[in-house]
Model the fold of this input.
Amino acid sequence: MLSKDTISRFQQLETPFYYYDLDVLRKTLAACHAASSKYGFHVHYAMKANFNPAVLDVIQSFGFGADCVSGNEVKAAIEHGFGKEKIVFAGVGKSDKEINLALDADIFCFNAESVQELLIINDLAKAKNKTAKIAIRINPNVDAHTHHFITTGLDENKFGINIWQLPEVVDALHSCPNLEFLGIHFHIGSQITDMEVYKNLCTRVNEIQDWFEDRGFEIKVLNTGGGLGVDYQHPDANGIPDFESYFKVFSDFLDVKPGQEVHFELGRALVAQCSALISRVLYVKNGLKKNFLVLDAGMTELIRPMLYQAYHLIENLSQSESQEIRKPGSGKEDPSQIIHYDVVGPICESTDCFQKDVELPQSYRGDLIAIRTAGAYGEVMASGYNLRDRVGSIYSE
Ligand SMILES: *Cc1c(COP(=O)(O)O)cnc(C)c1O
Done:
């Protein structure tokens, strides 16, 4: 992904910054679009993964809808040209202000996460003399087999409505004339690469839609959320997620009735691989037991490793010759040139470490370091802690 020309362009620039390869983004979107439209599936981009304006514009141009989790995301989606009829709005804590904003915008659907929220949306819609279209976010109790910090579909999670509360939902729907029930919504977690998990989700969705239909409800929309994972270990060899297998599982196992729409909300899978966080080595500290590379980027620029022990491939772009030398099979492996570094940031927190024991060529002050696969939940989570400058972004063209 990072060509010699690109790296030499970086030499002139102040670090840290997010580098966006819009070509990688377009290829990923094209692959997703081809794989989903084969089955007539609707894909909404989960904006919280990355709302960099240039990224949003490219995604919008492919015709995807938007999945929003705040009023400001709904606003931004509209500003970037996402059609309001393609905007869904989820979130366990939608404020009255946010609900009103979405009602005024006439979005496609609220994904409601509690019975109380249903009643509030109904009241607010009534005050505006409107009908709010809603789907019920149900917690299907499917184990996503992903890191417990990013699993959302188990009974113990705060998201969604649990199965045993569904009779209460039915009562609420009957008593809310300003709600139009569209269907059911699920989102069981993130960074899911095991297709068996999605097969299990399909089984639960089928059972739950039968349950609703037995009670006289017509399900127009099945929304199975997002969560498809990416390969953080091999961003170059495996840069495009396996959209084909992903959508095929739903086509094979979801019981889609005539006229029913199937919706998805993908975030990470669409944007993770198109960006790298580029930083420089500020200091090399050699200890008795450990060597540290102190970067000019830290948890204020990319918090995923510190927040949920996420792995990102770390490369020294300035010593790429050395990386070639130690490539297995090159006949030039020289283990003496591999050093184990703890790669850390400058922030005054002990957890401000990108990764321990990273194997890198001997590194020096000023070397450019790439932290790969940083396009999802990277720039959007940047903070101003320590009164740091806001991280910048640059683009491939
Ligand atoms: C975050 C989120 C998504 C997207 O998750 P990814 O793992 O990035 O695909 C989809 N739907 C909802 C409701 C979300 O909160």
Summary: The CA atoms of residues 68 and 370 lie 30 Å apart. The chain has two domains: 22-272, 273-395. The pocket of pyridoxal-5'-phosphate is lined by residues 46, 48-49, 67, 69, 90, 187, 190, 225-228, 265-269, 376 (CB under 6 Å).
